[in-house]
Write a structure and sequence with these properties.
heterotrimer; A alpha+beta; B alpha/beta; C alpha+beta; B: 5-stranded parallel beta sheet; 11 strands; globular; C: alpha+beta; 7-stranded mixed beta sheet; 4-stranded mixed beta sheet
C-alpha cells in the first residue's frame, strides 16, 4: 500500500513551528516533515512516505540482514558465472554476438499459474 | 541509493529463491498484504523465480482499490464544485466511481490537483484563501500520520478553507476478516512493512496464535520479499505460527509512538466499508468529534450520494483471494485496464490488471494449461 | 554545419511589393508582409514587458515582434523577405515531412526550454525516417501576459538549436490568445528533410532476429520537467536530454545502411516506442532490463515518486532496430558519437502473435511492458 523510500537527512530546521528538513534520495532532494522523529540527526537515514519521515533506518539491523543473505550467499566466481550467462551483458561488454545464447526468449522455468482462456 | 541497491541484487535474489525451493516440500499459499509489495513482485518477476509450490495471493492492501464506492462518489461530487480545489494522491485519479473518475471530473472543469504530500494541500489552502481546498485523506496506517498532521495543523493554524474527506483503512482487521472467511486459502502472511513502521507489530501476535498462521513483517525490495517468503515457508514447513520481523532495519515492535499519538488525537476507529468486500468492523479511522469542522463530508453535505457498483464486477472476491481474476465473467471482456470496472483493474499492480497482462504473457510462452 | 549547399531560397513575395506593403488586417495574422526599411517603429518593443493582445493583431505591434525578436534570431533571406510563403529548392525529390506541436509546463526546465524541444522534436522526427533535416516552420500561440523576456529566451533557444541542427527556419506565424487561454506559449513546428535513395526506415520493418539498440540513458527529460512541476518540485541534478539526433542517425546509417527501424522514445517513453514497433511489425520484443542505461539520480527520482523509467519521456534518445549481424558495428559507431556514448544493446525481436514487449528483470523473472494508458502519476501505493 505504501510507497516509502529511504533517504539521508541533510538539514534540519523548524518552519511554522514544525520540525522539517531536507532529505536526499540518491541525489534527489525534497523538504520532508520530521515531526514524528524528534531524535533524527543529520546524516541519519530515514524512511519517507508522502512527505513524512516515519522511521529511522537502523544501520546495524540492515547490516545484520545483509549478512544473513551473505551466509546463504555465493562465492564471487559463482556471481561472475551468473553474470556472464546473461547474453546481453556479455554482448554489451565484449563481443556483440547474441545468437549463441538461448537468450531471454526461453520460457522461464517458473512460469505457471492459471491460464486465461 | 543506499538501502535500496543492496536489496535488489539479482544473483543474491536467485540464491534466496533456491534456498526457498530447497526448504519447500509441499504447496503453500502466502498472502502479501500490501499493494506496494504486489507491485514489487510483479515489477521484478519475483513470483516467477519461486518454486512452483509457492503461491502468492495478492492481498487487499491497495488503498485506492478498497476505498468504498460511496466515498469515491462523494469525492467526485465535491471535486466538481466550482469553489473547490480538490487534492488527491496520483493513484486515486483513475479509480472509477459509479459513473466517473477524478480525471474525467477534471476534464469537465473540476479543479483536481495531484499532491505529493498532504502538507502540499495545506499550502494550497494558505495560498488560495478564497477557494475551498479539500484533501482526499485515504490510505492505510502508513499514510495516516501525514494526513493527521495536516488536519491537526489546519485546525491549529485556523486555516478555515481547508477540509478533508477521510477514508482510512486498517490492516489487522482486514487480515482477520480474511482468516475468518469460509473460502480462506491463506496459510501465511507477509505483513506490510511500512504499516508496521508506524503501528509496530505487537498486535499481530494474537492473530498468529488464534489462527495458527505465520506472520512475517516484510519489506518491499526483492531481497526483503524473498526473505519474508523464506521465513514464512520455514515456519509453515516446521508447523510453527509466530510473528517474525523480517524488516528489522525499519520496523520495531512498538512502531512510531509519536505518530500513533497524533493519529489518536485526530481520528477514531469506525466500521469501514471496503470496496468489493463489505463492511469490516473497526477497520477504519474517521475524524473524531473534535475535528468535525474539518470534515469535508459535512461541509459539502454529500452524505446522500447513491452509489451503484457494476453488477458483474467481482473485484471484492479477487481482493480476498477467493477467486482468480479470470474467473470473473467481465475479466478481459467488459473490464480491461483501459476500461476498468473495478479498482483492481486500474493500476498495473492491481490484481486484475496484473493478471490481465501476465495471462497474455503465459499464453505467449506456449504454456497454456 | 549548413546543409544548404547553394542558397535554394527564392523570395516571391519580394517581387510583389503591393502585397508586401499590406499589413495583414485579418485578425491576428502577423505573418504580415512588412517592408522592414519602410517601417518606422515609434515604440520599442521592450516598452512592453508582456505580450498583449495587440502583438497578435497583425498591426504595428505584430510587426515589432517580428522585427525585434524573431528576425534577428532566426534571420535568413527567406524570413527577411517576409513573404506570404517561401519557395524552397530541394536537393532531392524524396522528402520527409513532419509536424509537431509543443506544450510543456514549465516553459523552462533544467537543460532546456520549449524552444529547444520545438526545434529538436521536429528535427528528430524527420531524422527517424533517415532524412537530413533542412527547413523548419514555426507557429507560435502566445498567451496574453507572457513576459517578453521569456519569449526572447525561447526564441534564443530555438535559434541556437536550429544552428546546431543545421536547419533554417523559413516561415513563421504568431497568434495571441487571451490570458487564461494558454500556458504562456505553445509552438508548432513543421519540418522538411531529404531522404537518400535506397533508405527504407519504417516502423513495420522490425524482423524476428533483429536486435534492439538504445542510444543512451532514459528518463532524463521527463524527470527534469517533473522536478519543476507545480506541487511535485524536487531538487536534483537532472537535466533534459533534448538534442538533435540527425547527425547520430547519419552515423548509424553509415554503419548499417540496412537499418530497419529508428524511433525516438519521447512521450510515453521507451515502453511506448517498443510497443509501437512490436505492433507495427507484428512481432514481439524481449528486452533485458539490466542492459537499459539509466542515470542513478533519474532512477532515484523514479523510485521516489513511484514512476517506471521505461514510461518517462526522452527528447534526445533513439531506438535502432538492426539486423543482428550489424549490431556490433552500430553500437561501436554510436558509442563514438557524443550523443551515443552510452549506447547499449537492450534486446531483440522475437516471433509473437500478441506483439508484446517483455522485459527480463535483473532477478531473472519477466514482466510485461505495456504502454501507459494516460499520463504517469506519482503514486503512494
Amino acid at each position: 500500500m505504501c510507497l516509502a523510500v529511504p533517504g539521508e537527512v541533510k538539514t534540519i530546521y523548524v518552519a511554522n513551528g514544525t520540525r522539517m528538513g531536507v532529505v536526499s534520495f540518491g541525489g534527489v532532494e525534497k523538504e520532508i516533515c520530521f515531526a514524528y522523529l524528534p531524535d533524527l540527526q543529520v546524516g541519519d537515514y530515514t524512511i519517507v512516505h508522502v512527505g513524512f519521515a516515519i522511521s529511522r533506518i537502523d544501520e546495524v539491523s540492515a547490516q545484520k540482514t545483509l549478512d544473513t543473505f551473505a551466509e546463504l550467499g555465493l562465492l564471487d566466481e559463482e556471481l561472475e558465472e551468473l553474470r556472464s550467462g546473461d547474453w546481453l551483458s556479455q554482448a554489451n561488454s565484449a563481443s556483440l554476438r547474441v545468437g549463441e545464447h538461448s537468450g531471454p526468449t526461453a520460457a522461464p522455468a517458473a512460469m505457471r499459474g492459471e491460464i486465461i482462456e | 541509493m543506499k538501502y535500496l541497491d543492496e536489496f535488489r541484487n539479482g544473483p543474491q535474489a536467485r540464491r534466496l529463491a533456491e534456498e526457498i525451493a530447497r526448504v519447500t516440500t509441499r504447496s503453500w499459499s502466502i498472502m502479501e498484504v500490501c499493494g506496494g509489495q504486489t507491485h514489487s513482485i510483479i515489477r521484478n518477476g519475483i513470483d516467477q523465480i519461486l518454486p512452483p509450490q509457492i503461491e502468492l495471493i495478492h492481498g487487499p492492501g491497495c488503498p485506492v482499490c478498497v476505498t468504498p464506492l460511496n466515498v469515491i462518489d462523494k469525492a467526485l461530487a465535491i471535486a466538481a464544485r466550482p469553489e473547490v480545489i480538490f487534492c488527491s494522491f496520483g493513484d486515486m485519479l483513475r479509480v472509477p466511481g459509479s459513473r466517473d473518475d477524478l480525471l474525467r471530473v477534471k476534464g469537465a472543469g473540476g479543479d483536481v490537483r495531484v499532491v505529493y504530500s498532504p502538507l502540499d494541500a495545506l499550502k494550497l489552502a494558505r495560498d488560495n484563501p478564497n477557494r475551498q481546498v479539500v484533501f482526499f485523506a485515504i490510505g492505510f496506517e502508513t499514510t495516516a500520520p501525514a494526513n493527521a498532521m495536516a488536519i491537526k495543523l489546519a485546525k491549529q493554524q485556523k486555516i478555515k478553507n481547508f477540509s478533508a474527506l477521510v477514508s482510512h483503512v486498517l490492516v489487522p482487521p482486514a487480515m482477520e476478516a480474511i482468516l475468518r472467511s469460509s473460502g480462506n486459502r491463506v496459510q501465511a502472511f507477509l505483513a506490510a512493512g511500512h504499516v508496521c513502521s508506524v503501528m509496530g507489530y505487537h498486535q499481530y501476535h494474537i492473530l498468529a496464535k488464534s489462527y495458527q498462521v505465520p506472520i512475517v513483517v516484510t519489506g518491499f525490495e526483492p531481497l526483503d520479499l524473498l526473505e519474508g517468503i523464506r521465513r514464512a515457508v520455514s515456519q509453515l514447513e516446521a508447523g510453527q505460527a509466530s510473528v517474525e520481523n523480517g524488516y528489522e532495519r525499519v520496523v520495531t515492535e512498538a512502531g512510531n509512538v509519536l505518530a500513533q499519538t497524533t493519529i489518536s488525537e485526530v481520528f477514531e476507529v469506525t466500521n469501514r466499508g471496503w470496496r468489493g468486500i463489505g463492511v469490516i468492523p473497526y477497520s477504519g479511522w474517521k475524524l473524531n468529534a473534535e475535528y468535525a469542522e474539518l470534515d469535508a463530508e459535512l461541509r459539502f453535505s454529500v452524505s446522500n450520494v447513491d452509489p451503484s457498483e457494476s453488477s458483474i464486477c467481482r473485484a471484492g472476491e479477487v481482493l480476498q483471494g477467493s477467486i482468480k481474476p479470470n474467473e470473473c465473467a467481465a475479466f478481459g471482456k467488459a473490464c480491461t485496464p483501459r476500461h476498468p470496472l473495478g479498482a483492481t483493474m486500474v493500476s498495473s499492480e492491481g490484481a486484475c490488471a496484473a493478471y490481465y497482462n501476465y495471462g497474455r504473457f503465459v499464453e505467449l510462452q506456449g504454456m497454456k494449461g | 554545419m549548413s546543409r544548404i549547399a547553394d542558397d535554394p531560397i527564392e523570395n516571391v513575395a519580394g517581387s510583389q511589393p503591393s502585397v508586401a506593403q499590406t499589413t495583414k488586417v485579418e485578425p491576428s495574422a502577423n505573418r504580415a508582409a512588412v517592408e522592414m526599411h519602410e517601417f518606422s517603429c515609434p515604440i520599442p518593443i521592450h516598452d512592453h514587458q508582456h505580450i498583449i493582445m495587440g502583438h497578435g493583431g497583425g498591426g504595428t505591434l505584430s510587426a515589432e515582434l517580428i522585427e525585434q525578436i524573431f528576425l534577428p534570431r532566426f534571420g535568413n533571406p527567406a524570413l527577411y523577405a517576409l513573404g506570404d510563403s517561401t519557395v524552397l529548392s530541394l536537393p532531392s525529390s524524396r522528402i520527409a515531412v513532419s509536424t509537431d506541436s509543443f506544450v510543456v509546463r514549465p516553459l523552462f526546465f533544467p537543460g532546456g526550454s520549449i524552444g529547444d524541444l520545438a526545434v529538436n522534436g521536429t528535427v528528430n522526427d524527420l531524422a527517424m525516417s533517415g532524412a537530413r533535416p533542412l527547413y523548419l516552420t514555426a507557429g507560435f500561440i502566445l498567451e496574453e501576459g507572457l513576459p517578453i523576456d521569456d519569449l526572447v529566451r525561447i526564441v534564443d533557444d530555438m535559434a541556437r538549436a536550429a544552428r546546431a541542427a543545421g536547419i533554417t527556419i523559413v516561415a513563421g506565424d504568431t497568434k495571441v490568445v487571451q490570458r487564461g487561454h494558454g500556458d504562456g506559449c505553445y509552438i508548432n513546428t513543421s519540418g522538411i528533410g531529404v531522404v537518400a535513395a535506397g533508405l527504407d526506415l519504417c516502423l513495420d520493418r522490425a524482423t524476428v532476429g533483429d536486435v534492439v539498440i538504445l542510444s543512451g540513458t532514459i528518463g532524463d527529460h521527463g524527470m527534469a520537467v517533473m522536478s519543476r512541476r507545480d506541487g511535485l518540485e524536487f531538487d536534483a541534478p537532472i537535466t533534459s536530454d533534448t538534442a538533435c539526433l540527425a547527425d547520430l542517425v547519419q552515423t548509424i546509417l553509415h554503419a548499417c545502411p540496412e537499418t530497419h527501424v529508428l524511433r525516438d522514445p519521447t512521450r510515453g517513453g521507451l515502453a511506448t516506442s517498443l510497443n509501437e514497433i512490436a505492433n507495427a511489425s507484428r512481432c514481439g520484443i524481449v528486452i533485458e532490463e539490466q542492459a537499459i542505461p539509466i542515470d542513478s539520480t533519474v532512477r532515484s527520482a523514479c523510485d521516489f515518486l513511484g514512476l517506471d523509467p521505461l514510461l518517462v519521456a526522452n527528447e534526445g534518445k533513439l531506438v535502432a532496430v538492426v539486423p543482428e549481424g550489424s549490431a556490433d558495428a552500430v553500437v561501436t559507431a554510436m558509442r563514438n558519437h557524443p550523443l551515443g556514448s552510452r549506447a547499449a544493446l537492450i534486446g531483440r525481436v522475437v516471433a509473437d502473435e500478441h506483439n508484446m514487449v517483455v522485459a527480463r528483470t535483473s532477478l531473472g523473472g519477466h514482466r510485461i511492458v505495456t504502454m501507459p494508458i494516460g499520463e504517469q502519476l506519482p503514486r503512494i501505493c
